[in-house]
Amino acid sequence: MVLGIGWTINHIFSLFRRCIYVILSVGPIPNHIAFILDGNRRYAKKHKLREGAGHNIGFLSLTSMLQCCYELGVKHVTIYAFSIDNFKRRPEEIRYLMDLMQEKIEFLPKEENLVNRLGIRVQFFGNLKLLSEGARDSAQSAMSATATNSKAFLSICVAYTSTHEIVHAVEQVCKEKKQRKAWNEHVNLDDVERQMYLANIPEPDILVRTSGANRLSNFLLWQSAYAHLYSPSALWPEISFWHLIWMVLNYQRNYGYLEKQQQNMDHVNVFGRSNP
Amino acid sequence: MPKHVAVIMDGNRRWAKQRGLSMELGYEAGLKSLRELLKSCCNLGIRVLTVFAFSADNWSRPKVEVDFLMSLFGRGTEDELKNFVREDIRVSVIGDSSKLPTNLKEQIIDAEEATKNNSRLHLIVAISYSGQYDIVQACHNIALKVKDGLLEPSDINQSLIEQELETNCTIFPYPDLLIRTSGELRVSNFLLWQLAYTELFFAKALWPDFGEAELLEALQSFQQRRRRYGGEGS
């Protein structure tokens, strides 16, 4: 009886969510949302849980948010799971996070309700050599297992910073020039962009950072040049469907302004960016 | 107190429209606001102030508007030069100067030369600037060094790129605080690399209405924030 009620409530809420998605779809839906998952440790502290519990609950929030995004029609989601800067933390916490990451990555392709059902291709970007061997192997497996999926894309940035990505891109540009002896050609925007880790991922339309902090923390600096920034005060484990609705509504409100900017820019080919 | 404050001075045209004034008057009011901000920053001991005066993307605006802005920048530079010298303010201009009118280029060179030894506050004005292009030109300069055998691609690191970015004219290239006025929530291709750890503050006021009170609010917000740089201390 109780299970029956639980199932019914779930089903009603699911229908309700889909109604909201249909209404929102009257306006433009962002193609790519990027998330900085900040606040797991503070959440654990706030609720007097052990530190690791915050990250575990954070993972549940993540799968929930991913489901909402993909159901809404967002094609690309990128998350900042672990920064190169986070290696400054206590060794115990790093070890815990590496193990947690490995556990959750192995879980991803197995999760029947999410990654494979929704046809999501999972990719990892960053200096993967810095990860524990176990985490790295799981990441490679997950990438192989989902390589043929193409309905939606989940990009997970681990051992990542934007400045590291840019250094790597600049190094590759120089290596390529040296190889081709192409010194007469001036380096242009496309040259650099092509060498970025996320070269095949479109720029984020919305960049979300939870826990009220208003900074980019070395995440997607190049790619977020025009992204709409959303900074809810909720800690990451507290993020919900309503935050997604609110951010999309704000995005739609600003869309006219951004579209006009884009149209103007397409007429002016600045700094060697080839127009699509 | 932040050492380096950056500002995206947005909202001049909306301010003018709201008051039924011309676009030109909106920008004149914006210039006045900048003068006030400069004075406040000097008084507060802020060492570097970088302002986004004209984006590389703004070249697509109507010619009348672009021409007016170019002449406003020239006039502003000349009118303020005595003040910069008197107040010990150093001026630098970053951005792609190749598209600027010749006389403005000359005015800028003169102002930079006349103030290069000043040290109380460094005013960096970004004109025809793009954060992405700043990185591209740094990459190009580094590529030239590789060509000349001065370094190998594997030697390239964050420090090298930092030295080639246009903000290399200051010892504090990374803003501690970025303020954007008029309620727009984006960085619009302003400093990108340099904003890695900058605290962002979005003010609702339009730029001509941004005064000392609004600046203090932004600074107060900055002082209340805990900067962890990815490490411990949640």
From TrEMBL, chain A:
**Enzyme Commission no:** 2.5.1.-
GO BP field: polyprenol biosynthetic process
* Keywords, alphabetical: Magnesium, Transferase
Which GO CC annotations does the UniProt entry carry? endoplasmic reticulum
* Domain of life where this protein originates: Eukaryota
NCBIfam families linked to this entry = uppS (TIGR00055)
As for family, the record states: Belongs to the UPP synthase family.
**Pfam families reported in the protein's UniProt record:** Prenyltransf (PF01255)
Q: What class of enzyme is it?
A: transferase
Q: Name one GO molecular function term.
A: ditrans,polycis-polyprenyl diphosphate synthase [(2E,6E)-farnesyl diphosphate specific] activity
Q: What is this protein called?
A: Alkyl transferase
TrEMBL record, chain B:
Per the record's keyword annotation, is Ribosomal protein included, yes or no?
A: no
Q: Which GO terms describe its molecular function?
A: ditrans,polycis-polyprenyl diphosphate synthase [(2E,6E)-farnesyl diphosphate specific] activity
What EC designation does it have? 2.5.1.-
Keyword flag Transferase: yes
- What's a GO cellular component annotated to this UniProt protein? chloroplast stroma
Q: Which GO terms describe its biological process?
A: plastid membrane organization; polyprenol biosynthetic process; response to cold
Keywords, comma-separated and alphabetical:
Transferase
The record, for Pfam families, names:
Prenyltransf
- Which family does this protein fall into? Belongs to the UPP synthase family.
Protein name, UniProt field: Alkyl transferase
Give the organism, scientific name: Dillenia turbinata
